[in-house]
Design brief:
alpha+beta; 6-stranded mixed β-sheet; globular; binds adenosine monophosphate
Length: 593
């Protein structure tokens, strides 16, 4: 597997893929030649579109163009985050047995897709780009996740990769990937404590990492805000202009999804412009009932609209400092990654928090995470290079993991921010005399009562030999790997019986049968897309061929009309020239097809 292990930054709004090649990282361009791909999928009457092609047609096909799917993974339909976002998305999200599914019309039929399936389509596209670039198959990847992803969300990414035909070498967090990239490229000047703020389209992810030296990067603490990203700024701007439109024209634009999509695209563009200019103009012709909407937004208004969101960026920064018990004066480097860190006000507030510290944003924020993931992929797949020798990272558990003890109390076995991989055990016993079975309920979360935490699953140790209460010694072991995947074992020390964790209660997870079906569908869609692409290519080539022939013929006819009295040799020479031109066009057409 060695050389073709890719690193993927699977982003809420954009995704990027890189590979270690010729002793350095190459960011792989997609079929448009772009180094990152919009995380958009669109369905139409004839085709499925992914990336730029999907994003570019959103205002014409708003109900069937999906973005932000990452915000849905590992969540229940009634999750407040899902409910809140549903009001803004033009596509429809439906409740399928408690899980959110996206409903679209594809090839004239109503179809439902799970968010995992949508992500798998994006992963498939990135894999394809890599295969075209490398001219070889790609089957393994390091994929980045938000560092505070819970078990369901990590499993969802694993399932999406599986459906896309990729096996996961490791899941690493965005900030860690960024730290690896900065480290490899010698962009971290000192050994010491680094705060990395990864602020993209969908979420905010902050890590405090210690650069121990000799290549070792140890995560001390992570924190984040899964409900804060560039998309939230877009929403505020959109709402502002909806009100302005109402005020100016006494009309409600929200009744027209197509108009809303056009407004959203214009607002995002304006937001990005405001990172380098003080004012941005919005000009959308015939947006609603033939009204032209021409307006503008200043940086000050943008800041006012988003003041509370901008302030919220400091909360996870304070939290990682608190958790790691490190004062902000002991932070040697502050690194910014993710598109939203381009906003000057965000930079200002972070720099001010660190007493005016200069921020390190020397790496391209759109590519740095895929870069780090590609380095990690090369390290893990055994690529030999002096540059990779010293790259090692130590990650931490994003949430506490434990089991329920009497009275519904959370009994943590692995604590949040414990270094991973790790294996930890605790001894439990029975509450009743002659108790023959012992139920182990596994939870993740920081709250004291288990009802407030997230139930991952439960299993039972049965046939415990009868004994007075408190006598059986049941050892429960939590084993968590470097990607954050958990296995739980229970062992009766008195009798030697043991049992492994089996997820029985994971409401969010797809079943094996569902995944198998999705793998089959993915192959079908992939081959349909390929056929459409090939057909399109053949059509374009033929059109170009006909055009060239027409051109040659037209030129000769014009010459003929203008030269009615030419000599015999001239006519013959022209005729031969035309035949040769037709033949060479034909030859070129045959070679290219
Ligand atoms: P990422 O997920 O890191 O690719 O970040 C994507 C987010 O960054 C989107 O919400 C973009 O609108 C936002 N973004 C990209 N460029 C800029 C910019 N120049 N100014 C403000 N936001 C930006």
């Amino acid at each position: 597997m060695g050389k073709n292990s890719i690193g993927i930054d699977l982003g809420t709004t954009y995704s990027c893929v890189g590979i270690w090649k010729d002793d350095k990282v190459e960011i792989i361009p997609n079929d448009h030649g772009n180094r990152f791909t919009p995380s958009y999928i669109a369905f139409s009457y004839a085709v499925r579109l992914i990336g730029e092609n999907a994003k570019n047609q959103i205002s014409m096909n708003p109900f069937n163009t999906i973005y932000d799917a990452k915000r849905l993974i590992g969540r229940q339909f009634n999750d407040p985050e899902v409910q809140l976002n549903m009001n803004y998305w033009p596509f429809q999200v439906i409740d399928m047995n408690g899980r959110p599914y996206i409903q679209v019309t594809y090839k004239g039929k109503i179809k439902q897709f799970s968010p995992v399936e949508i992500l798998s389509m994006l992963l498939c596209k990135l894999k394809d780009s890599a295969e075209i670039y490398l001219k070889e198959r790609v089957t393994v990847a390091v994929i980045t996740v938000d560092s505070n992803y819970n078990d369901s969300q990590r499993q969802a990414i694993r399932d999406a990769a599986n459906i896309a035909g990729l096996s996961i070498l490791r899941l690493i967090s965005g900030p860690i990937a960024a730290a690896i990239a900065y480290k490899l490229d010698n962009r971290i000047s000192v050994e010491g404590n680094i705060v990395i703020v990864d602020f993209g389209g969908g979420s905010l992810d902050v890590s405090l990492i210690t650069n121990i030296g000799e290549g070792v990067l140890e995560v001390m603490a992570t924190a984040g805000d899964a409900h804060l990203g560039g998309e939230d700024f877009n929403k505020r701007i959109v709402n502002y202009f909806i009100s302005e439109f109402k005020r100016k024209f006494k009309k409600d634009i929200t009744t027209d999804k197509r108009a809303l999509c056009r407004l959203r695209t214009a607002c995002e563009r304006a937001k990005c412009t405001l990172s380098s200019s003080k004012q941005a103009f919005i000009e959308i012709d015939s947006i609603f009932e033939s009204i032209d909407f021409h307006t503008s937004l200043t940086r000050d208004v943008f800041i006012n609209l988003n003041q509370d969101l901008i302030q919220r960026i400091i909360d996870p920064v304070e939290k990682v400092l608190r958790d790691a018990r490190i004062d902000k004066s002991q932070i040697h480097e502050v690194i910014l990654v993710g598109g939203s860190t381009r906003i000057p006000e965000i930079q200002k507030i972070i720099s001010n928090f660190f007493n005016g510290k200069e921020l390190n944003k020397s790496f391209n924020p759109d590519e740095v995470i895929a870069y780090g993931a590609a380095v990690k992929a090369a390290c893990l797949s055994g690529v030999r290079s002096g540059k990779l020798d010293n790259i090692l990272n130590i990650d931490v558990a994003p949430h506490s993991l434990g089991i329920e003890s009497a009275g519904g109390i959370m009994n943590p076995i692995i604590k949040r921010n414990d270094t991973i991989p790790t294996r930890k055990s605790k001894i439990f016993t029975t509450d009743l005399d002659n108790q023959t079975n012992f139920i182990i309920k596994v939870y993740e979360g920081e709250r004291v009562r288990t009802v407030d935490n997230n139930l991952l699953g439960e299993f039972e140790l049965t046939d415990i030999p009868p004994a007075p209460k408190g006598v059986p010694q049941i050892e429960v072991t939590f084993d968590i790997d470097s990607s954050g995947f958990l296995e739980v074992l229970a062992f009766n020390k008195n009798s030697g019986q043991h049992n492994k964790f089996v997820v029985t209660n994971d409401k969010n997870r797809l079943s094996n049968k569902e995944i198998e079906q999705m793998i089959k569908d993915a192959m079908k869609y992939h081959s349909e897309d390929k056929n459409v692409k090939q057909k399109e290519q053949a059509r374009n080539n033929f059109e170009r061929y006909l055009g060239n022939l027409q051109n040659a013929l037209q030129k000769t006819i014009t010459w003929f009309d203008d030269n009615q009295g030419a000599e015999k040799e001239e006519y013959e020479r022209k005729r031969e020239y035309l035949i040769n031109q037709v033949l060479s066009e034909l030859e070129e057409f045959q070679i290219n097809n």
